[in-house]
Amino acid sequence: MNEQLQPLKKQSRSGKAGRSGTQDDIVYAHIFEAILEQRLAPGTKLSEEALGEIFGVSRTIIRRALSRLAHEGVVLLRPNRGAVVASPSVEEARQVFLARRLVEKAITELAVVHATADDLLQLRKMVQDERDSFSRGDRGAGIRLSGEFHLKLAEAAKNAPLISFQRSLVSQTSLIIAQYESGNRSHCSYDEHMQLIDAIEARDAAQAVHLMMHHMDHIDSKLNLDEESASDDLHAVFSHLLQTKGKSPRPAAKL
Amino acid sequence: MNEQLQPLKKQSRSGKAGRSGTQDDIVYAHIFEAILEQRLAPGTKLSEEALGEIFGVSRTIIRRALSRLAHEGVVLLRPNRGAVVASPSVEEARQVFLARRLVEKAITELAVVHATADDLLQLRKMVQDERDSFSRGDRGAGIRLSGEFHLKLAEAAKNAPLISFQRSLVSQTSLIIAQYESGNRSHCSYDEHMQLIDAIEARDAAQAVHLMMHHMDHIDSKLNLDEESASDDLHAVFSHLLQTKGKSPRPAAKL
DNA sequence: GCAAGGCGCATTGTACACAAGCCAGAGTGC
DNA sequence: GCACTCTGGCTTGTGTACAATGCGCCTTGC
């Protein structure tokens, strides 16, 4: 109960996923990271008071951070009933991926035109970081950095509305990956990211888009969206019991 | 100072642009509408306390509404310095329009596949309303309804992320139109909207997309994005003075 | 007369106290 | 024994007080 973070002033400046300095940015970043790293499972209730104690700030700050997370779709805000970590359904996941395809295609085309040398340099650096995370076996950081790569790519496209949309899509994608990714953890391969940068640097739009679409295919295929791992639709979960009554319930179904 | 609205409980349910019932929705809708109808000019300061008095609510509610408006890009939130009505630059306007083209294309293609009979019915009804507003000469309502048409179209496309992005884009577009539209006020012609619905109903994707792109061209061409009507770049504003010094300043330049 | 510095006011940022709304559990009636 | 109701506690929603920050005006020196 009494475990509380440090005074929390500018603790995460340039640390972890933190933005600049204000308190809600810090809270936002920490919660977001916890969700990505699955320390907060989908469906988990996010009590305002509890979070306030943990971070050593008042509910006002927490509330703003939650509102922001809700805007990006990684948290569900239910009026009068508090916030929970979003648990996107298969249908929602499909919609996010469809939207991402559209946006990534546009971003790639724009990046080929507008990316500066500095953009490309930063992109390469991010892929390095990503590779390092995976070799360290830090899955959460890997997912996050992979997302930040795509976000940085959007920035290279130099279109503010697309950047903000991409931010939301990447957040949701990360959550979906964390929730649905099947066993093999070799996702979002940094090789593909590197090739993509090469194509952009060569200003080869067709090739870049081709690579990006291929990349999206890979991400898609790594998820098992066909069979939901855990559903809140009781009928769906127990559908196998409805016909052959005799079957015994699964012994260790992790709900 | 003392002019205040009615108790404001559920006053705008089904009225004007109001959503369901909560207070911040009402405040949000009213401010948004005021911006669209240019009763609030770009750059106007939106004081929390003043708005609170006007709407008869505390700053808490106002703050949420402003935050939401800021998320949609029609209000600019400057830390420690309050909120102002956004005044998109020409460059920002171009970016919004570019993004909209991309999204409208995708939405149209999806709507051709997914629009239900009921969707089409509602769309037709909205075009009717739009036409009525214009014949009444209600410019603000016209812009708003025209935007709502495009938003409804996004809903017909059945993709949640795209809907939310479209909402933001439409809001910003409306603001841009209000700010930049040149004299002739025959914008966003409902004829084009009607034809678009026909093409969608006929499930003719190519034709629908063609019409939509044409529609976007029309909107673009009605704006004079080349010469900014009012700029905050002093060098740009007074560039004509920099060469021929003798010129006298304009007598009644409204800054 | 003009520029720089300091002070006071106004406005936003944060925390907290109170009100309102859900949810769970105990109790009761059928 | 089951279901329904009522109540108590807990969580969120809202208003408000206080702190901090930024801005404009005034003074003062040159």
Q: What topology does this entry show?
A:
The structure is a homodimer of 255-residue chains.
Chain A: H1 23-36, E1 45-46, H2 48-55, H3 59-71, E2 75-78, E3 82-85, H4 90-114, H5 117-136, H6 139-156, H7 160-180, H8 190-201, H9 205-222, H10 234-237, H11 239-243
Antiparallel strand pairs in A: 1-3, 2-3
Helix pairs in contact in A: 1-3, 2-3, 4-6, 4-7, 4-9, 5-6, 5-8, 6-7, 8-9
Chain A binds a DNA duplex (30 and 30 nucleotides) through residues 23, 47-49, 57-61, 63, 79-82.
Short description:
The structure is a homodimer of 255-residue chains. Helix content of chain A is 62%, strand content 4%. Chain A has 255 residues and is mainly alpha-helical.
State the oligomer. homodimer
* Count of distinct strands of chain A: 3
Q: Quote the average pLDDT of chain A.
A: 81
Terminal-residue CA separation of chain A = 26 Å
Contiguous low-pLDDT stretches of chain A (5 residues minimum) are 1-20, 230-255
So how many helices of chain A? 11
Write the H/E string of chain A, N to C.
Answer: HEHHEEHHHHHHHH
- Major sheet of chain A: order of its strands? 1-3-2
Protein name (chains A, B): DNA-binding transcriptional regulator, GntR family
Pfam family, one (chains A, B): FCD
Domain HTH gntR-type (chains A, B): 21-88
Keywords (chains A, B): DNA-binding, Transcription, Transcription regulation
